Amino acid sequence: MRKHMLAVPVLIAVLAGWAVGVTAQDEAGPDGLVTEEVEPGVERIIRDDAGHDLDETHPTYRLDMDRVAIMGDGSVLLLSSYRDSDNSANPPGPLLWVLGEPDPASVPDDLVWCDTDGMGVFCFDLSGHRYIYLEDTPINQVAVASDGTIWAVGGYDGGSGGLYRITRD
After folding, report:
1. Which of 55, 86, 106 lies at the terminal end of a domain, its last residue?
2. Which of 18, 53, 125, 150 sits CB 3.0–4.6 Å from 47 for a disulfide?
3. What is the pLDDT of residue 75?
4. What is the pTM for the complete model shown?
5. What letter would DSSP give residue 127?
């Protein structure tokens, strides 16, 4: 009976240690990212080795992560902003940065962010200029290729089957 009583606390300690190890890393992995697993195959990025800490508050809230894009070289580009009362405690405007890089200088000047709210494609560039395409067309998803071509899928002529290539002139 005594052997079983000792086995239970040891088992609990082993399981607790395993759970902590699975949910968060204290050190950056080979890609320079500190992550936590939120479900099998899905990790939340906590920070990178370039000084971006996504759990840091500014001063009350974490950054709002507004947009993500993959650049031609595979870099992850992020657009974030301050939230609510943090807006008055920080410089105005969004934050544009590359995951794993301390300086966003490698961001291309002609970068365009695009999305849909279900009708049309809306894009904006770094100067804040907004472009709208297919305004009255049902759109399901939008993707921007590394060459700047915008691809959209959705409706066509009142039905489905629309694949659109948008090039900015």
Report:
1. 106
2. 53
3. 84
4. 0.66
5. T
Residue 46 pLDDT exceeds 90: yes
**How many structural domains does the chain have?**
2
**Are residues 91 and 31 located together in one domain of the fold?**
yes
Is residue 113 within 8 Å of residue 94, measured between CB atoms? no
- Say what the pLDDT of residue 14 is: 38
CA–CA distance, 53 with 102 (Å, rounded to integer): 12
CA 122-123-128 angle, 5° bins:
125
Number of other CB atoms surrounding residue 51 within 10 Å = 10
Query: Domain range holding 57?
Result: 2-106
Same structural domain for residues 18 and 54? yes
Q: Comparing C-alpha atoms, which of 162, 160, 144 is closest to residue 70?
A: 144
b/e for 138-158, b at 16 or more Cβ within 10 A?
bbeebebeeeeebebbbbeee
Provide the 3-class DSSP secondary structure of residue 75.
coil
End-of-domain residue from the set 106, 125, 154: 106
Three-state secondary-structure class, residue 156: strand
One domain for residues 22 and 101: yes
Q: At which residue do the structure tokens 């009362």 appear?
A: 85
> Phi and psi at residue 3, in whole multiples of 5°?
-60, -40
Tell me whether strands 150-156 and 159-166 are parallel, antiparallel or unpaired.
antiparallel
